[in-house]
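Lecture notes, structural biology module. Today: joint structure prediction for complexes of two components.
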Amino acid sequence: MSNPSLHRESRMSRTAVMALMLVLAVYFLLPIYFLIVAATKPQGELASTNGLVFTHFNLWDNLHTLFTRSDGIFGRWAFNTVIYAVFGAAVGTLISALCGYALAKFRFRGREFLFSVILGGVLVPTTALALPLFLLFSATGLVNTYLAVFLPSIVSPFGVYLARIFANASVPQELLESARLDGAGEFRTFFSVAFKLMTPALVTIFLFQFVAIWNNFFLPMVMLQKESLFPITLGLFEWNGQTARAPLLQMSVITGSLVSIVPVIVVFILLQRFWRTGLAAGSLK
Amino acid sequence: MTDTATRALPVAAPAGTRRRLRGGGPRPGTIAAFLTPFFLPFVLFYLVPVGYALWQSFLVVRRTGGQYGTSYTTFGGFEQYEQVFQNGEFWSSIGRIGLFGIVQVPVMLFVALIIALLLDTPLLKLKAFFRITAFMPYAVPGVIAAIMWSYLYSPQLSPVVDLLQDIGLHPDFLGPGAVLWSAANVSTWLWTGYNMLIMFSALQSIPQELYEAARIDGASNWAIAWRIKVPIIAPSIVLTTVFSIIGTLQLYAEPAVLRQISSNISSTFTPNMLAYAVASGNNYQQAAAISVVIAVITFVLSFGFMRLTSKKAGL
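The predicted structure, tokenised, for the full assembly:
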């Protein structure tokens, strides 16, 4: 930085870079900021006041309306979403971990073949599966049940892919050999030795699957007619479609959207570290 | 990486030597017990539906004795596929999504790359803030994102429309020409940060020494970014492109939400919406054929793109 012209150039580019990033930050934050402002307003002021400026603080009333509307159906949707996402991701992570670990650490015939089938599964568009699954599930009476959404959600080929990479990277073969020498069975070795070593990786897999299920819309839409089984995304979609006839619903759509994104955003910011390790591993060839 | 490491390994322990202390590994039964919890649902909820859709797509429903006769299902060969390819709505949905992808995917990935590169230079302050800000939309479900943006598009409620009108512009975000790009904006908003983070993670794993030599030779940050960093993270860029292609062909939630406030989105706006509309009309065989065609296009494009780029890069 002793060269004065270099110094000037770098100060100019610093300013330009900062300006560009600020514009982008405004773009990313604008819809969320708008949603926060809108959720605090009384319905009557949505259209009549500037959407970016706080007016009368009516958030508590809006929340009360949201959670009491149609016998508290929104609370039910929130509960359903948590059930689908938490249990689906937990079961999904466990079975991905077992499978990925076995593919990484055991030697057996057909291992590479199985792994390529799973990799092929990563590329299958999941929406293309929803319609045939609906037909199969209606033949077995599963349509319109929790299981119709839950069961397909536990399968994550990407999770197995990550688990295999992580098991290779974080579980030393010698440790497994010595556990075997001590007479520990394979499952005991997995749960007492490998599981601990893979924990950060498993958190990553859990998060990816959790978000995928939390955000899922097409599968529940195809599978469910009963409102009491809806996740939030499907419920708000239905409400949003009725706002033309029932304008007062608009306020609940807005407040409900805010309620549904805040917990996930908070979890995201707290667990950032895991995202970065997961994405870094996923991008390795 | 995994390929070369595993190919050299012996495949299976010879019979009779199971439970050797070193190298033999666990019994087949134990291995199966590890694999089955994943593979059973994988087969049931991934492979079987794929097979079922394929099978369905070769069936047709016919009627005996005119319109009011009894219907029966029979093998129809490629009849469903012929209908798909003769369907004007199918081609216009493909055309729309093609246009969408050709514009939206490069724009989104370019912006993602720029942010990732800027986060990786010493030029920028407040890095953590910008990284989180860009990534945050990934936490928002597509449906909710589309609802949020639809309020920003709507002429009655939008502060953005108000602002633009104040400076004399009269945008119609939901008009026939604009609505496709309004949907593209929602996708860009949602996925830029995710793609940025994939590229950023790859950048972070490049050893700093690589840049030292270039710096000593007087290379600018700009030159280092484009000549050294971008080529090294090319595999990540390919990966994000493939994921984006898959995502684009599956597009459903965002246009479905915008359809609730704009008459310029038909029920067959994207191929996936068309498949759903056809299935809702109880023509499952036709819907299956459409799904199969979408999946095949997805495979051809993603593999094609991977082959093309790996040849070019000489990998």
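Point to remember: Chain B has a mean pLDDT of 86.
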